Amino acid sequence: MSQSNLDEALYEEARKRVKKKKGFYGHLSAFIAVGLFFFIMNMSTSPNELWFPFPMMGWGIGLVIHYFSVFGIPGMKGALTEEWEDRETANEMKKLVNRYKPIVDEEIDNHLELKEIQKEKTAQKRWSDEDLV
Question: Is the dihedral of CA 31, 34, 38, 44 positive or negative?
Answer without folding.
Answer: positive
